[in-house]
Amino acid sequence: MRRLSGHGRQRFPSGGSPAGSVRRSGGIDFTSICLGTRYVSHRGSTMSRYTRSIMRYGLDFGTTNTTVAIERDNTCEVLPIGANRRPIIPSLIFFPEFGGELMIGQNAIDGYLNSGMNGRLMQSIKSFLPDKNFKGTTVGGQLGYATLEKLISVILSFVKKQADAYVGEQVSEVIIGRPALFSPDPERDALAEARIVNAAHQAGFEEVYVQKEPIAAAFEYERRISGEEIAFIADFGGGTSDFTIMRLGPDHVDKADRSSDILGVDGVNVGGNNFDSSIMWRRLIRYFGSEIEYKDWDKWLPMPRHLMQDLCRWQRITFLKERKTREFVKHLLRTSNDAEPIERLITLIEENLGFSLFQTIEKAKHNLSSGMDTQLAFNQSGIVINECISRPEFEELSNTHITKIGSCIDQLLATSGLAADQIDSFFVTGGTSYIPAVQKVLIDTFGAMKIRTGDAFISVAAGLALSRHDIS
User: Fold this and answer.
1) Which residues contact 279 (CB under 8 A, 6 or more apart)?
2) Residue 59: which region, alpha, beta or left (left: phi > 0; alpha: psi -120 to 50)?
3) 376 - beta bridge partners?
4) Distance CA 55, CA 71 (A)
5) DSSP code, position 117
6) What is the C-alpha separation between 219 and 177, in angstroms, rounded?
7) Which of 352, 304, 359 is nearest to 331 (CA)?
8) Cα–Cα distance for residue pair 359/279, rounded to 1 Å
9) Which helix (H) or strand (E) holds 148?
10) Could you tell me the pTM of the whole model?
11) How far apart are alpha carbons 126 and 124 in whole angstroms?
12) Order of strands, sheet of 103-104, starting from the edge strand that comes earlier in the sequence
């Protein structure tokens, strides 16, 4: 790990940590400048070359997708870093089974499918950031064992290379987004931020700033309005839902310090992946043995809950191929009172069908945003699933997530000392905002007339690039 040096002071908006408090971790400097946090890597001669650049990326490394924008001379452009010049890439890495070149984004999906799903496809890597127990994993090929920071840096390095090629210059500064809360545990939250910063440095960025994603979304929305507003901003992502309440308007855009404009920030660890997991947990795990019992010595025991929970989290399915787990699943096959679902479980694990199954689940979720029912149909390698799911059923099985989102919104209003009728507008971004039950919470709280929408996938990256006044 590269060692960084220096010193710094943090300043927080009202409701945050005390002004002047200092955080240091592993040689990284934590210097908050207004709303953002600055992390500088000192590398000698290359530093002077890059810091003369007037360009800076805003990088939204998401649980599901990654986007990057650039600020230059007070203009913002979201860059076409993806396949077919799209502005997004899936936050995925594919490691071929027998070595070979790893693949990123859509290329990872294509390579995985073209290989017959032989190899390791890693998704939702961002969700591991606050996990103290996850240090890294063996991926084989070029990397062998890779730390979490290394896995993330692989994606960020790819993004940087694509973006640099487009702008024709090596851009050394980046403003990277983070949720309002990686974790409600301060220690885990700080660990997650340190990890994402370390990954950005490993990817080749010299100066790294951190900005909360809902505040970035607020800056993007601010460029659209003509008068002053008290705006409630919501960023519904794949892993988290993040909120801020801010004073916005043309007269605020060029203020050097926006701290007084932030009336509150909060978030909850609920995102699109949680809704997918709910479908798996409530409707599909019975196909893979949730209801079986197995014999251990002279006792009949239920299917271990943790195994089924891992099956419901796409980012954890890949770890079911670890030797200890595979041996246990074979033990289940020998001793269970119903071998058929265990055979399906083994097929799912051994043939790497988790990605395909969750693609089917996600499609069903999307269908329920526009229709009142959908058929979830999956038929691969002898695993046959046919489930009809109605929108009311989906809303019932995901009610816990909807309640958490609504409670977080209510809590932020309360801690900010504001009532819903004092909010002038509610700006929403992120793919999970398309779920009708989420939309209903917003309309019931604020009224349909106040809802404003942005591009679900690029608003945060654009807002990160526009955060320049807060880190100058």
Assistant:
1) 361, 364, 365, 376, 389, 394, 397
2) beta
3) 387
4) 6
5) S
6) 13
7) 304
8) 12
9) helix 148-167
10) 0.84
11) 5
12) 103-104, 93-96, 119-122
Neighbour-count burial of 153, counting CB atoms closer than 10 A to its CB (0-12 exposed, 13-18 middle, 19+ buried): buried
Distance CA 161, CA 159 (A): 5
| 20 in Cβ contact with 9 (< 8 Å) | yes
Tokens of 281: 């947990």
Residue-wise pLDDT tens for the chain (472 aa)? 222 222 222 222 323 332 222 232 333 232 332 344 555 543 333 332 223 345 889 999 999 999 999 987 777 899 999 988 999 999 999 988 877 789 999 999 999 989 888 888 888 999 999 999 999 887 876 777 889 999 999 999 999 999 999 999 999 999 999 999 999 999 999 999 999 999 999 999 999 999 999 999 999 999 999 999 999 999 999 999 999 999 999 999 888 888 899 999 999 999 999 999 999 999 999 999 999 999 998 899 999 999 999 999 877 887 888 889 999 999 999 999 999 999 999 999 988 899 999 999 999 999 999 999 999 999 999 999 999 999 999 999 999 999 999 999 999 999 999 999 999 999 999 889 999 999 999 999 999 999 999 887 899 999 999 986 555 4
Q: Are strands 93-96 and 56-61 parallel, antiparallel or unpaired?
A: unpaired
Give a three-class secondary structure readout of 273-285: HHHHHHHHHHHHH
- Find where tokens 């880190």 sit: 471
Whose structure tokens read 């983070």?
A: 178
Cα gap 308→285, rounded to integer Å: 7
Query: Residue 134: what are its φ and ψ, rounded to 5°?
Result: -100, 105
Q: Write down the domain spans for the chain.
A: 288-381
Could you tell me the two tokens for 121? 């496809």
